[in-house]
Amino acid sequence: xxxxxxxxxxxxxxxxxxxxxxxxxxxxxxxxxxxxxxxxxxxxxxxxxxxxxxxxxxxxxxxxxxxxxxxxxxxxxxxxxxxxxxxxxxxxxxxxxxxxxxxxxxxxxxxxxxxxxxxxxxxxxxxxxxxxxxxxxxxxxxxxxxxxxxxxxxxxxxxxxxxxxxxxxxxxxxxxxxxxxxxxxxxxxxxxxxxxxxxxxxxxxxxxxxxxxxxxxxxxxxxxxxxxxxxxxxxxxxxxxxxxxxxxxxxxxxxxxxxxxxxxxxxxxxxxxxxxxxxxxxxxxxxxxxxxxxxxxxxxxxxxxxxxxxxxxxxxxxxxxxxxxxxxxxxxxxxxxxxxxxxxxxxxxxxxxxxxxxxxxxxxxxxxxxxxxxxxxxxxxxxxxxxxxxxxxxxxxxxxxxxxxxxxxxxxxxxxxxxxxxxxxxxxxxxxxxxxxxxxxxxxxxxxxxxxxxxxxxxxxxxxxxxxxxxxxxxxxxxxxxxxxxxxxxxxxxxxxxxxxxxxxxxxxxxxxxxxxxxxxxxxxxxxxxxxxxxxxxxxxxxxxx
Length: 546
Ligand code: N01
Prior knowledge:
Helices cover 31% and strands 18% of the residues. By secondary structure, it is an alpha/beta fold. It folds into 2 domains: 2-155 and 390-537, FAD/NAD(P)-binding domain, CATH 3.50.50; 164-221 and 336-385, FAD/NAD(P)-binding domain. Strands 1, 2, 3, 4, 5, 6, 7, 18 and 19 form a 9-stranded mixed sheet that branches. A 5-stranded parallel sheet has the order 8-17-9-10-13, with helices on one face. Helix 1 packs parallel to helix 15 (444-464) and helix 6 (232-240) packs across helix 7 (242-251). The radius of gyration is 24 Å and the shape is globular. The relative contact order is 0.13. The mean pLDDT is 96. 3-acetylpyridine adenine dinucleotide is lined by residues 65-66, 153, 159, 192-198, 200, 217-218, 337, 358, 386-389, 499, 504.
């Protein structure tokens, strides 16, 4: 590593083996793996002022993981797993953030991270086979490898309504929540959006606010998370066979750590089906409703209809005012990323909560005093945008990547993102994207570890051979994209608009952005690359240098 600094100690130029961008789950592990295990010189950048990635930014009231902690953590360090005592089944944002800070300290990672700094561009120099990066603070960095853990759900979708700047109250976005406490006490609050972020904050804000108005564009299927203490039986099972447990997580479809159903909804009687839905709704809840009841809710129309019929009846039973229940009831398929939250529908029984159907009465403008729809004005003190993210590609495209022959990633991906294995894109050598487009549609932390390990192996392979670059061939990338399309169109997910296919952002291409054949099959694909000596990749040495 070489480094140049100014008189005041600001690093202006840095040459390292690898740059890591982002210090959430993926970036922290990448920094540890490459620096501490592989012995490379590595430097990381994060535009936040601390580690944590999504858990640094998403501090909104009610923010917590809806994956059980036993699969929402690192697995490679058994001691860390045993030592860290999670307080509940689903940890709050502050607890996940504390865990990631502990991870950074445990592996002494902070000395290799520059915070508060955005990487603006990354240009591949074909004469040197190195990437040249520029940050918004003027640092110039060169690196042979880049690992980007920039976040699947990080770049915010913050729509701007006419008149927004005139609002005299407070405006927040769930994914850019301030670090200071926000009080809703005695205030009239409006929440725009009812995805995972919206439902969590709606449930939490309602008891505190004087009045809460929920602006709903699409009603959602919300399954109770069945939050509670950690399940001692799960912990016992893990402790009995730690390796076996993680192997089963990685061999499963979703990597959530629970037992997935292998039974079709068509293979049981209607009475049995009802009993299974009821048991999981009241038992494990959350993601288990989609994946532990039957194995075809995401693929069979009949199975999906059975699930939506069940949830619709639950909404009707939970909400006392039938007209509110009707507004809250979705008519589309259950084929978005599942939303898991306790007490959501019941919140609308409170006297201080009202629901506005934004499709029926579109929001026209934000005024000095609140929000005006096409039929009336809602006076508010606080507006919360729970409007989500420019998901999957958003943060990748913020960086101006230029690959071989000056090719721009933004141009290459203008019609749709293109990768091989969700990890690399042809023409952009030595650039590894953790959870890049067309990666697995699964719980993230276990998949992050697998992808970082795969990248580390690829880097070691290149170096051991005395070579310099690795990138997928065009043919392998075309094949992967076709495979992802073929699999996705066998599921119901492309039939429903959401961030999963880019439909939530006006003007964004609506396309397949995930490998939907499950974690186990994805593991096989990664292993195939290694077993075949990276036959789907161009692995090359130094260019002729004069
Ligand atoms: O975002 P979303 P999110 N006017 O896109 C509405 C993860 N996550 O932040 O459905 C009015 O799901 C939009 O309406 P519609 C998780 O993977 C995890 O909630 O597009 N409304 C929708 O209701 C999740 O899936 C956790 O019609 C507008 C909402 O805003 C992903 O992040 C917690 C609008 C956006 O929902 C994204 O969740 C939180 C407009 N102009 C997030 N624009 C946990 O682990 C958008 N909407 C628990």
